[in-house]
Amino acid sequence: MKCRNTTVSDMEKEYIEQKDKVKQIMSRIPNRICLTSDVWTTVTSEGYICLTAHFVDENWKLTSKILNFCRMKPSHTGVELESVVFDCLKQ
After folding, report:
1. How far apart are CA 90 and CA 18, in angstroms?
2. Least crowded by CB within 10 Å, which of 31, 56, 57, 65?
3. What Gene Ontology cellular component terms go with this record (predicted)?
4. Is the bond preceding residue 37 a cis peptide, omega within 30 degrees?
5. Local structure of residue 26 (DSSP, 8 states)
6. Rounded to an integer, what distance in angstroms lies between the CA atom of residue 86 and that of residue 81?
7. Nearest to 18 by CA among 66, 53, 59
8. Where are the domains of the chain?
9. What are all long-range contacts of 79-87, with beta carbons under 8 Å and residues at least 24 apart?
């Protein structure tokens, strides 16, 4: 069984690899990308947002990739949403 530190390290490496892979895929998209967001608040009043990109790939297959999952302070106003989406995309 792996120790906690090894597991955390392996997960971080996998995250970086997958993030780089998504960046490469997104850089090859010749046309439009549609962004969707899902915003919710937990029963303990913690807010979250998940950003997803949707696009048609080079094989004409509709593809969706989660770009980021971020904390979001309530209230979920349009101004707050704009700020959080922009910050999530910069990561």
Report:
1. 16
2. 31
3. nucleus
4. no
5. H
6. 8
7. 66
8. 4-90
9. 81/37, 81/39, 81/49, 84/49, 85/35, 85/37, 85/49, 85/51
What the block records as the tokens of 31 is 């046309």
Q: What is the dihedral of CA 14, 54, 31, 88, to 10 degrees?
A: -60
- DSSP H helical ranges for the chain: 4-27, 78-90
Amino acid at residue number 60:
W
Using only C-alpha atoms, what is the Rg of the chain? 16
CB 35 within 8 A of CB 50: no
Give per-residue pLDDT as tens, 32-86: 899 999 988 889 988 899 999 999 988 889 999 999 998 887 777 788 888 888 8
> What per-residue string of b and e applies to 55-87 under the rule 16 or more CB within 10 Å gives b?
beeeeeeeeeeebbebebeeeeeeebeeebbee
